[in-house]
User: What shape does this take?
Amino acid sequence: AQTVTQSQPEMSVQEAETVTLSCTYDTSENNYYLFWYKQPPSRQMILVIRQEAYKQQNATENRFSVNFQKAAKSFSLKISDSQLGDTAMYFCAPPLTGNQFYFGTGTSLTVIP
Amino acid sequence: DAGVIQSPRHEVTEMGQEVTLRCKPISGHNSLFWYRQTMMRGLELLIYFNNNVPIDDSGMPEDRFSAKMPNASFSTLKIQPSEPRDSAVYFCASSSQRDYSGANVLTFGAGSRLTVL
Assistant: This one.
């Protein structure tokens, strides 16, 4: 069975510090995209960053970057200079089967002032 | 663009009643997804439409659940009869799928919180 694993149910980080959220997955696809979504207390799902599997360069979006290890099927999210507004649930979403987006169970991140 | 619009935002109903959740995707998007979110199971993909056609409904929990997409601008998720274990937040999302590589981003609605008493 194809799976998405986020092994850290909860994490916390001091404001202005750096935190890394992990995600591993299983897929038989070779070319695909991977995504991280954020869900703040407002419950709205917001795209944080996406990575193209055929690109070796890791994606970066301002304070957010990924460490994509295709062979290891690992896709972690690094948040630098954490801000209070980063407090949210973070979901990893690799497209495991065609265009069907399956999400991990999420990591609840709390930024501590 | 107003984004993906879901209604109602909140629904409280009694066990056995029919519940209909509605979704208007972003204009021009040809893929639509229904998800259910609970504390226990996280985000579950229920069903996925492409060009108004259901592609995979294997995530639909049981026959009490049904989804339709009569046209490109409207979809419904119906639960009949509803049960307390159906209480969850139901999300609709849409994307503009050009191919099956997953190259397009999901845009989510704000969700419908369902409580079945």
In short: The interface with chain A takes residues 31, 33, 35, 42-43, 45, 48, 50, 55-56, 89, 91, 93, 95, 97, 100-108, 110-111 of chain B (CB under 8 Å).
